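hey m, so remember when u said the tokens were messed up on ur end? i reran from scratch. heres the input so u can diff it against urs
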Amino acid sequence: MINSIALIGTVASCVTGFRKELIEFLVAKGITVYAFALDYDDVSRAEVEALGARPMDYSLTRSGLNPFRDISDTIKLSRTLRSINPDLVFCYFSKPVIFGTLAAKMAGVKRRIGMLEGLGYAFTEQPSAERFKTKVLRRIQVVLYQLTMPLLERLILLNSDDEKDLVDRYNITVKSVDVLGGIGLDLSEYNYSVPPQSPVTFVFVGRLLAEKGIHEFLSAAERIKNKYEDSRFLVLGGVDKANPGALTEGALDHAIKSGLITYPGHVNNVVEWLHASSVFVLPSYREGVPRSTQEAMAIGRAVITTDVPGCRDTVVDGVNGFLTTPWSVSDLYKKMAFFMEDRSLIISFGVESREIALRDFDVNTINEKIYGFLR
């Protein structure tokens, strides 16, 4: 029997955007939900309260390797957990899973569950030689997982590759590992629409980073545009200037001014833009199970994505889309060209995507599954 639960994540926008349905589900079960986030303001705090949960502030650096700061933050979090005394602590994302689990143990919370929605950059294969810093970061993460995951009663992952590449490869001890699949969507908010076939609009959604495949997308788009005038390319997502793998402003400006892409930037109405698109493209190097792909499938869009962990879980190759070779511009171009040559695939693959989304990405079904894990 669970009377209270502490959800420990990162930013408030994730709580209100990606945990909304789960919180409402748990509250409807009569469970007191403490929703921890790093950056609540008055607006996000009120949104969480409207869901029936109690917003809780805490501190933890999202990145960086300052052990003294992390230890201090963990001690503070343990004191907060001790004061509210939840029946269960459910942490999600890498650093909360590590330090939130440790804080829960220190606070005497007997039940602790963690969820990783992907392994992150340190575990993502790159087309170029791996940097020394990445190796060090991955080793540190592995050691921390080896220390803290035995404290979990259960680890939840989104895809089976993550279990192989983390738990199995590094011999991490954890009592139980479960593969959830996608976090899911409220499908009532995603209505099917017939995708436009003229012009054919390929859409990319994500941060404009190398590991999301933005460079491959732009290169393939340029080749498609040169051969097929009746093609359009839409890019949705922000530029992370602090990230060394970010698309440069010069490259972005060139793509815009040359007429290669339409770029509205980071938008809050992604679904509206998806409805105006024909084919969803995500040439990412690794994911958990990407939400943007789930959204595109839910409204009936064919998908082109890479044959890598997380991405491959969204496509049945040749049924609702195509899987491409990671980092290959030529293969991505080839798969885009299929839709330019046979536009009936845009419709038929889109219908299959919708069916897969209805079967696999219904948040109500997924929340029941999560609740089964929590019980």
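this time it looks ok to me. The chain has two domains: 4-179, 187-360. if urs says something different then somethings off w ur setup not the seq
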